[in-house]
Records
---
Amino acid sequence: MQIDASTRRNLELTQTLSGSKKGSLLDVIDRTVTGPGARLLEKRLSGPSTCLNIINPRLDAIESYTSNNALRLEIQNILRQTSDIERAFSRLSLDRGGPRDFVAIRNSLRKGQELSLGIIDINSDLINNAKENLTGNGEIINLLDDVFGDDAPLLARDGGFVRSGFNKDLDEIKKLRDDGRKVISSMQANFISVTGITSLKIKHNNVLGYFIETPTTHAKKMLSDEFSSMFIHRQTTANAIRFTTVDLSELETKILNAGGRALSLELEIFDQTKSKILRYSEKVLNAAKALAEIDLIIALADIAVSENWCRPKLDKSRKFKIVSGRHPVVEAALQKDASGVFIANNCDLSAGDDGDKPIWLLTGPNMAGKSTFLRQNAIIALMAQIGSFVPAECVEIGIVNQLFSRVGASDDLARGRSTFMVEMVETAAILNQAGENALVILDEIGRGTATYDGLSIAWATLENLHNINNCRALFATHYHELTGLTKNLKGLMNATVSVREWEGDIIFLHEVKKGAADRSYGVQVARLAGIPETVINRAKEVLEKLEHADQGGKTSALIDELPLFNSKPNSFVKPKHLSLVEEELKDIHPDELTPKDALNLIYKLKSSMK
Amino acid sequence: MSKSSITPMMAQFLEIKSDYPDALLFYRMGDFYELFFDDAIAAAAALDISLTKRGKHLGNDIPMCGVPHHSSENYLLTLIRKGFRVAVCEQLETPAEAKARGSKSVVKRGVVRLVTSGTLTEDSLLSARENNYLCSFSVLRDDSAFAWVDVSTGDFHVQSCPQVSFGPMLSQLNPAEVLISDTNYDTFIDQTNEFGTTLTPLSPASFDSSSNNKRLCNFFKVNPLMDLEILSALKYLH
């Protein structure tokens, strides 16, 4: 589906207009439990499909999980215990990975196996495919199990990650190293008995290595001739005095050496395992993709059930029928604040007494829900084509291959463009590119310039969409004059957002009904905003005067006079009115006139000129 | 009269730095990564750490700042997010090994990693729930193509893309970094700035079609391809 940058921004698909992720469509519908699942959802949302063979299998898969809440929960619990296989594998192949990455892959593949072994036995091609990719990884799992212990350090050079029993040489060297430590403990015991200093300890630091430490109270004893041959004085601190012995140094060297050899052997094993694993790259990455796909399907099934969404029916026609559609983000916000129920609305671009009405002209006051209505229909079409259920009672849509929207005011002062200019640029893109299977959402085209200029542009744009682009469109406007165009444009239908006036105030009903609004209630909305009463009253006065001056029938007459878009340009020639004198002269035959009659005629003509 | 001398350490630093003129050089010195000269000035400002000096070079003080090794990832992330590229230079041997070669020899050092916003793989530097795309756009006479890869997952795509679709592609993928020939830099810098994406200019040689074709064929082990789409791909291999 072709979606341009402004449409992505306007519809707040992955980011709100203020640039944050929270509050975007992605944020609201994301119920995935793994990183890869979330990334997959973002990818799908950014690039909806136009192919029924891709969309329908996804819908099938989701449908098969909507009936079993417990199963979904179980699967999500297993998924939560998996890690990001793709990224771990990538790091390993780029030589940036560590033992933890291997362990992550092993554990996740194991969990994948658990998933595949019966928990997801459901009749869906997509799921069966995923199942296949999660089985048959036994070899890899066993390999990693043999090599790596249960836990693992982050970096290979920290060592200690190879399981005992895997490599005989390594085990021997480790024993040497560990035994060495045992020997140190017995050495310590020995020194204690030799010196009689019970607080004697053997410690280790980076500066001295292994050393013997006693509190300074025993310094004299330790430095005395009796012990000075055995204990080599190394350091005195405020509280302690430190020594080494030849035996201790030798042992330290042995331990270090063993430690060093153990580490280099472990690193060798690490590299070998890495090469082995890289050969399985296709299987491992397919398993990763399978886990992400399952996560996404379960997440979409989850939200479909909890938010009462329906399965959309898609085909290749130009249908667009939505029954009781809702805007998922606005609905969620209302639920969160408990500030009311979202009023669902229908949209049927193929319902009319005389054929399809692919273009709806929506009039009505501000804040009544026009923009939300426009956006929700675009969003429902988009969600249907990523292969998800949608927030509505029933949806039938012909595939949309281009989605255009112009909703919301945006100054681009930084780049030297006013609101109007931005709008014109976006509208231009739409008029130049929209084809038959496009869906176009336009909100208040012609705003931001003088009234008649704006009206004219909106008028001409509407005609172009109808006659040239021939696409499905929702066009919201304040120019009520445009509602008269239904006379000439057969595919146009008027709709309005209903409000009720109650003692001078207006109440928004948020219901979209067929018909035309004859007023925008702009003044009433201004009053709601808190504009001072004096200003409101004056505005009402001015409005009344303006409405009277604009002779009621003027615009409908205008519609009659203006030819349709494609017809020949108006060559309206004013018929010549004959003057009275010319009328008189027209029928006179000078040869038949007597001189007296001629003179009388001249007097008559002169008087009629007065 | 001897001219102001360059210490062996500085000589080593300058040699390594000459390979990475466009990146900040994180130079490992013991427990710290240190930056010198202009790198230090830029990093100190970006990281809000103090700028000091160390030693002299050709008579002038050498500006310096540093971060501890064990907490360097956060600083690295801040710099990447601000659009810098960072070359990480490690000590390749221990001081003991260096001493064994002679008391005056400097510890061997080398750059092990060039970190840019589009080539991150560490979990701590990435957002788990978002892809991190590195893209490239190449123009060959009248054709152009767009390629994108998420280095952290291995996801790789190419498609032909007219110049007008550059913006929509940026909007769809929200990439971290885009590679472009420096001859086209000016054409696209406004658009990438608008999306907050780093635009990295490379020499036109990186976009040479025949050598890239060969590298791709070797990498994917396929027969020679002639599509322009393929030409836009993978300078990321280096």
---
Amino acid sequence: MRQTIPLFITFFIGILLIIAVFIPPFGELGETFTLFFDIMAVFAFFLGGGNLLRVHINKLRNKKPDWPYSIVTLSGFGLMLAAGLFKINNPGDIAAAVDTAGSLFYFMFHAAMVPLGSTMYSLLAFFVASASYRAFRAKNREATLLLIAAFIILLGRTPFGMYISGWIPDEVSLFQIPNLAVWIMNSPNLAGQRAIMIGIGLGVISMSLRLILGIERSYLGGDK
Amino acid sequence: MDHVSVWLGAFLTLGILSFLYKDNPWYKLCEAIFVGASAGYWVIVLWWDNLVGKFYEGVGDDPALWVGMILGVLMLVRLIPKVGWISRWPLAFIVGATSGFWMMNYLGSNIIEQVGATIMPLLSTQVGAGFDAGVWMILSRLVVFVGTFTGLVYFFFSKEHKGAFGTTARVGIFFIMITFGASFGYTVMSRMSLLIGRIDFILGDWLGLIN
Amino acid sequence: MSYHSRRCLRSLPTITAIVSCLLLALPFYASGQEPVTDSVPADTAVVIEAAPPTTVLSSDHKYDDGDQINLSWVPSIDETLKDSKVIGYKIYRAEDGGEFELLAEIPDVDTTNAYADQEVEHGHKYAYYVASVTETGEYASLETMPLEPEREWLDLNKAYLFIMALIISGAVIIYVETAKRGKELFVRKIAGLEAIDDAVGRATEMGRPVLFIPGIHDMDDVQTLAALTILGRVARTIADYDTKIFMPVSRSLVMTAARETIKSSYQAAGRPDAYNDDMVNYVTDEQFGYVAAVDGIMVREKPATVFLLGAFFAESLILAETGNSVGAIQIAGTARPAQLPFFIAACDFTLIGEELFAASAYLSGEPRQLGSLKGQDVGKAIAMVVIIGGVATATLAGAWQMGFAESIHGWLMEVFSTN
């Protein structure tokens, strides 16, 4: 019983959305279900936010390692919630959009979250360098191909590409690095992308059928 | 206020960058601020956009939205141990909806569209044009055709990669590796520009060393 | 002069006026329009600057929910003249015999002579007229007959899509059923999945935890669902080996689903008491806030094994490189082709695209699940046959212009196009 009803719900809703594609009056079902999902996400947030609070309060209470930082996390969370719910300092008062310029919410987003996010993102520059360094020690033919292709595309997108290969005559101008880079993007790269995409499409269909037909049911939990 | 923003921004930027050296209290502080503030941020955005914007303001015109509300409340039932199992119903709804919706979507965009796009004449620019394709065009189209075909062979599950099949699969993975290399090379420059943006902020906006 | 002649002479002005009016009105009646009188006094002559559009046709848009009517017209004949005064068109609509109201304006000439009215509803009748617009007035066409948009219950445009769905789904289901009856199914080894047992065992030996990252998307992404199905299998191994697992997640719904999944795995392993809700924790929805926290967990808890499965974006490399720096063995998989190269460069094993969706079936070892993989292969085989056939017929039709090749190619293009 505890598994049967959920399995039936998954089956019914799944089949409904599949046939909705072919039945025009049901055409907007997908959008409607997306709205349901959006509303459910808010309620899920009560569970998630509650979990965040519980974990950090626990850390504080039991003086676990790094417990002082939990004070910071909880304060940041509380301050943001207050700033957003009560629209503190918002020029347009409670009726205006929550992120109106000048409000505390806006300030905290732009002064704190934006630099933090951009800097985390910029760490990629360093990690790309370290990953490339490791990949340079290519151990097999596949890795070597990956490297060569990456190198050509990289050079092709900078002035160096033309600088190095400008001497190549126009009759075989395809081998000039910028042209070669464009050709690689449009031909072998395109082929590989297509094969991967077709495979993914088939994988999604197969997995979706397993879920809808109840063959795959691990997400449902046991009978307790 | 602007002065405060810049100094706060610089403090947080350098704190995150310090992670590259090793984990340290400065990074831990920045991480704690980020997690707390951003979690709060998203609660607020979802509250105002989804609950108020989509449900409260939309339910008058579309009573069906009450279904979403009921499913949402059912999720909270998880907190009551005795009837917690009812919270699987909204989960089952989501799994069914996601599977059903994306199945047809991927069939159209990933399978039908991609197969259709691969069907091209090899020796002509288009159907009925005669032998008018140049050498490079023939080569390019042949590469796309062979690459897509052998790539699909590589992904076959129910046959061992041996013999002629294995060789074809090997050619396929070569194409796939070129694809990965191209993606890698393509994104490297954009990652560098992100770092340049932050250096610009530190040296320009904060320290005023550059314009 | 006779009485008759005098009477005729007195009626001459009247007759002249009548004949003049008829002559002036003739162009209007030829095109079927009512003369515009609202802005001009009745006793002065009407100045006609342009001809109205003709042949206004309204038709039901097929295969929809009765929510679209297509309108077309022949533009004013003035557009072919050098000194045309027509500057645009206006479309008027009347619902259920009511007043005509302005529906849309076409502010230019020579752009379009069709309009799709998507603000209609099944169950109501709509009539239209189109007017050519000049600087000083509008010249309306004849009205169309009232039309009720029809609601079709089947979209026949998607017939081929339906057949394709039936074929591929049918293949999957048939092989699932066949496998149930005990038929042996071969599946080639996937290195990343074969390594899971050893990877978890390594964590147990080293006394370090396993870290499972299910991507940063919510439950409305199939990749997250795939990650959770794999989690079920991995959690079973973890329960058997009694290893510690950390699972920080970026979405609250994923937290709930993951808890259910791991709990049931522990129950299936006969160790329900070893399960703890704290194995799965919500961090934040913010992409890089989540990454900052996970990086922190990686360098502080030093997991021996890291799983990076699901939907990832730019942060994929940050997570993979940090995992590398703490010496973890990493098994990654995503269906986002743009992130796969980073996983390949930084992780020990990578599941490429389709392998992510096949993983859970592969790990289960159950005949029914393996049968579905065979069904996927049928789909690939069909794609390969169609590609070979399509390219062959396209080449024959292109270079040698063979008739039968052209028809087959034309049919294939009709089937394999999305509209």
